[in-house]
């Protein structure tokens, strides 16, 4: 028995498949509670807008799922009609993989419920929620779920890729706080995967992306986080080598309650930044301290000793920190992403970084180094699909600008920056920071975990129905196994 490994992806503008007729579509529409949108329908164009405006896709239909039954019906219809199938949560994916051309796009954005159990300290989150929904619900109980740094990001995509952010050093990745998922498989079954049930599937979704089904609900452990001491510290760009050398030693030795990601940036011309810094290229660290407030002054004393141009650190509710970049990075900008995992910041790598920091092509373009240590290092590389537990940082380089006319400029800068720094990297990349970069990069990202991911793919999605992602291809040399 042969297994299809990767369906060819149609180009933009491809029309609906020949077999997709009113006789097949209308009975399907009648089974749905949510809307079925096709080209020309009110709401279709809006449903096709992605966070990255550089990407344009036109599905034959978008299903605005109202509930799990809609998801099951959509998966079954796509499989039976042999349609391309994509799954959209928050729509932030760098490569625009939440939508497909000419096929069926499952849109979960109307499924956004969050329920907190304050006694058990658990958080149940529907598959279409964004992190702002979670932060709002959990903060009322003095809890948080570790996530990213932009509150409009979808819970589903960020979690399934691993989940790096402000709380990584203290509480680990988002997947390290994941207790269970409800998901619809390629054959239309709804299952709950956890450490006790479907443990192979639960292992795979913790870092393996959307390769194995549609997650309709996440169950997280809530972490005790309320007010944090947080904000940016900035230095002039001509001090970047000094600051990076200090940062590479300071942060790994700091208490795990302190997180700080390093950045090159152009200062936005708006509050809270002082006018004398507006549109200046700088380096900086965005801090989040979630420990004992009485220890904060001593902890930040070495930061102050470096005489920054701005030390904007202050107490704030955790959800406020989570929204700090929302206004700077609204939906609809042009994005080009490149990324790597990094084990060390050598003097040679720092010198290459500075070459490209001086050439930041736009106000929105940046480079971030997110810490991947502390609690994240206490999980073994084989305990979840997320392999790079031995990395020290996750590096992301993004060329970003509002104007489509600058796409080539920002993309060329990001590609050249990546090419210059990749020799100093650990090899793979955080899947949530990747564009469509091919199977070699996917395998480099999962390393020794890739063969196990292929086995799980064989078991639960042998025909590769879910392939609009950083794809784990099923193994055509082996017959698919029956999953129970």
Automatic annotation (TrEMBL):
InterPro entries: BBE, FAD-bd_PCMH, FAD-bd_PCMH-like_sf, FAD-bd_PCMH_sub1, FAD-bd_PCMH_sub2, FAD-linked_Oxidoreductase, Oxid_FAD_bind_N, Oxy_OxRdtase_FAD_BS. PROSITE patterns: FAD_PCMH (PS51387), OX2_COVAL_FAD (PS00862). Keywords: FAD, Flavoprotein, Oxidoreductase. Residues 1-24 are annotated as: Disordered. Residues 54-225 form the FAD-binding PCMH-type domain. The keyword Methyltransferase does not apply. PANTHER family: BINDING OXIDOREDUCTASE, PUTATIVE (AFU_ORTHOLOGUE AFUA_1G17690)-RELATED, FAD-BINDING PCMH-TYPE DOMAIN-CONTAINING PROTEIN. This is FAD-binding oxidoreductase. It comes from Corallococcus soli.
């Amino acid at each position: 028995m042969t297994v299809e490994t990767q369906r060819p992806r149609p180009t933009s503008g491809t029309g609906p498949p020949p077999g997709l007729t009113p006789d097949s579509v209308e009975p399907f529409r009648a089974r749905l509670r949510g809307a079925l949108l096709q080209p020309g329908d009110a709401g279709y164009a809006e449903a096709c807008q992605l966070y990255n405006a550089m990407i344009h896709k036109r599905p034959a239909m978008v299903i605005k799922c109202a509930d799990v039954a809609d998801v099951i019906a959509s998966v079954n219809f796509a499989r039976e009609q042999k349609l391309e199938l994509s799954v959209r949560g928050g729509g932030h994916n760098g490569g625009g993989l939440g939508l497909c051309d000419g096929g069926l796009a499952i849109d979960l954005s109307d499924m956004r419920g969050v329920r907190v159990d304050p006694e058990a300290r658990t958080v149940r989150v529907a598959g279409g929620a964004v992190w702002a929904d979670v932060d709002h619900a959990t903060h009322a109980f003095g809890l948080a779920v570790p996530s990213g740094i932009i509150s409009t990001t979808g819970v589903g995509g960020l979690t399934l890729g691993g989940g790096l952010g402000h709380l990584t050093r203290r509480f680990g990745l988002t997947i390290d706080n994941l207790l269970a998922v409800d998901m619809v498989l390629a054959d239309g079954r709804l299952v709950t995967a956890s450490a006790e049930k479907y443990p192979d599937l639960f292992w795979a979704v913790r870092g393996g992306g959307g390769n194995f089904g549609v997650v309709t609900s996440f169950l997280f452990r809530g972490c005790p986080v309320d007010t944090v001491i947080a904000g940016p510290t900035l230095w002039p760009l001509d001090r970047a080598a000094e600051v990076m050398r200090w940062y590479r030693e300071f942060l790994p030795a700091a208490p795990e309650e302190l997180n700080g990601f390093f950045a090159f940036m152009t200062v936005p011309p708006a509050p809270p930044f002082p006018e004398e810094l507006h549109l200046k290229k700088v380096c900086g660290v965005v801090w989040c301290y979630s420990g004992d407030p009485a220890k904060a002054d001593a902890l930040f004393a070495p930061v102050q000793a470096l005489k920054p141009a701005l030390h904007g650190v202050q107490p704030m509710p955790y959800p406020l920190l989570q929204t700090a970049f929302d206004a700077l990075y609204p939906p609809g900008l042009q994005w080009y992403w490149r990324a790597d995992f990094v084990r060390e910041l050598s003097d040679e790598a720092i010198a290459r970084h500075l070459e490209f920091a001086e050439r930041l092509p736009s106000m929105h373009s940046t480079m971030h180094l997110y810490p991947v240590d502390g609690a994240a290092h206490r999980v073994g590389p084989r305990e979840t699909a997320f392999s790079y537990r031995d990395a020290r940082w996750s590096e992301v380089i993004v060329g970003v600008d509002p104007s489509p006319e600058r796409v080539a400029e920002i993309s060329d800068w990001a590609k050249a920056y990546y090419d210059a720094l990749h020799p100093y990297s650990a090899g793979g990349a955080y899947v949530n920071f990747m564009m469509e970069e091919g199977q070699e990069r996917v395998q480099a990202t999962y390393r020794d975990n890739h063969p196990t991911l292929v086995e799980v793919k064989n078991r639960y999605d042998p025909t590769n129905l879910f392939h609009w992602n950083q794809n784990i291809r099923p193994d055509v040399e082996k017959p698919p196994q029956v999953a129970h």
